[in-house]
Amino acid sequence: MTGTLFEKIARFQADYCRCIDGGALEQWPDFFVADCVYRITTAANHRLGYQAGIISATSRGMLQDRVSALRDANIYERHAYRHILGQPAVTEAAGAEVRSETSFLVLRIMRDGTTDVFATGVYLDRFEIGGDALKLAERIVVCDSPRIDTLLALPL
Amino acid sequence: MGAEGQVFGEMDWPEGLTRIPYRVFQDRAVYDVEQQKLFNGPSWNYLCLEIELVEPGSFRASFIGDTPVVVARDRDGELYGFENRCAHRGALLALEDSGKTNGFTCVYHAWSYNLQGDLVGVAFKDGVKGEGGMPPSFCLADHALRKLRIAVVHGLVFGSFCDEVPPIEEYLGEAIFSHIERVLGGRKPVILGRFTQALPNNWKLYMENVKDSYHASILHLFFTTFEINHLSQRGGIIVDDSGGNHVSYSAIDNDAPRAAGYSEQNIRSDSEYKLADPSILDGFKEFGDDITLQILSVFPGFVLQQIQNAIAVRQILPRDTNRTDLNWIYLGFETDTPEQNGVRLKQANLVGPAGYISMEDGCVGGFVQRGIAGAAGSHEVLEMGGHSVETSNSRVTEASVRGFWKAYRAMMGC
Questions:
Q1: Stated pTM of the model
Q2: Does this complex have an ipTM over 0.85?
Q3: Average pLDDT, chain A
């Protein structure tokens, strides 16, 4: 992978969204390092420093379990997401530690075609760079709204 | 008969508590009567946590049914509750969910109230330069905000608009009270997170779901697979005399035959599902008993949950016939070690809008709401466990669901 850091992150984000929106959930944990942190929270919780998440994982194994549960255990009506992302803002790029913020808009498409704005917010990301490859060491998904409609099954 | 008599006069309640007319989930007129007779009636409604109102002047905006209310701590150290509606022209007074203030001043015409809900000032009350102003007959004391009775149970703040409601201890009953005490008694909670889940269904469908111990290990496979809860585990339900309050619990019982009854009936139970990171199931011993799950509800719309070490309160707020807000607050305790805090954060994955064992509850009410669209004249069937609303050692029962309807019909007079 070549290009500037900005380009690398932008490409990473595009691949990440393509993975989820395309339904290839089994590949989703591969975007993270083994001892990653992944949390979905809301702006209000984030502002107040509340640590609990709507989803809260502290390992890639927990992300794999999330996918297994969605495939084999949990029951929900079939739906898909369409992620629309803003340009990443690289907020820290010292040595191997890279941080960025990327805004997102996620539409949820239900099986009957109903399409709604499901979530907007920002990814607060910390990447690990190994050679040319980026992996997420931490992704805090901060949703703008305190409300989640019906349920949150697929990851953001 | 008033309007509510007409609403329920046409409704069919055959066979006691075992048939529930679907219309109660669909009819706006029923919804409106509920607001008056039930939420504004002789019920206790969860409003907030006492820890949210520590300092004098702190307030929290909440709801009783549709009605916006405020709970505040005055300088005398007491909690006061009142309607969040200016006595003048009806505008909201508190426009933030919480904060600290010396009183409330309406943004519309600057009518001002103290922390007890008394009207203390009216802008231009005496007019300007001898012109205008309120008539001499106008008396501030006649225009206080509509006040609530407030009761605190182990850090949970409840409110009621009704003077006739029994004291909260009596309303809950001893068994329910002691099971609240079991989880919250003698320790100070801390908030770990709060989320709102917007449910696409009538509020009563969610309360039925909460009280329905029959569905738990059938709809929620995660429970069953990891033996967090099995209907074949030791457990039971407690229903109070009113029917409206309940506790469902299960306890570790190493002697129980694994998944008895599941495989024969082709209920998904023995899957190949294994966790890559099973640390989510690592808990710590928190209580002096073997109860790993306790779901407790207080009529009409409150739930206290202990699932292993995941403690949460849930406030259920009706928004329309087919819309309900479910407010979750995840709790830890001041005395938690960092490790215990970590366990609670991890186990929070079990509950909430994305919870491994609760996400189905977010959609199943909507499945019913949509399923009954053409069935206003038809009924639910509630016969599992018989016809009674009794406490039982089995969770293969809908007794506490029938209990909900017993309390509902008593309060609604239908």
A1: 0.94
A2: yes
A3: 95
Say whether pLDDT at A2 is over 80. no
Interchain CB distance below 8 Å, A41 and B275? no
3-state secondary structure of A138: strand
Pairing mode, strands A147-149 and B189-199:
parallel
Coil, strand, or helix at residue A70? helix
Q: What is the DSSP letter of A64?
A: H
Q: What is the mean pLDDT of residues B297-324?
A: 98
Which of B359, B360, B368 should we substitute to test contact with A (largest number of A Cβ atoms within 10 Å)? B359
**Nearest beta carbon to residue A153 from set B198, B199, B359:** B359
| Residues with Cβ within 8 Å of residue B172, at least 6 apart in sequence | B44, B153, B180, B240, B245, B298
B118-174 pLDDT, tens digit each: 999 999 999 999 899 999 999 999 999 999 999 999 999 999 999 999 999 999 999
Q: According to the model, what pLDDT value does residue B234 have?
A: 83
Q: Could you give the CA distance from residue B27 to residue A143 in angstroms, rounded to a whole number?
A: 34
pLDDT digits (tens, 9 = 90+) for B385-413: 999 898 888 888 999 999 999 999 999 99
Question: Is the Cβ pair B221, A44 closer than 8 Å?
Answer: no
Residues from chain B that touch A77, judged by Cβ atoms under 8 A, are 363, 367
The pLDDT-based confidence of B1 (bands split at 50, 70, 90) is: very low
Which H or E element spans position A128? strand A115-130
pLDDT tens digits along B311-334: 999 999 999 999 999 999 999 999
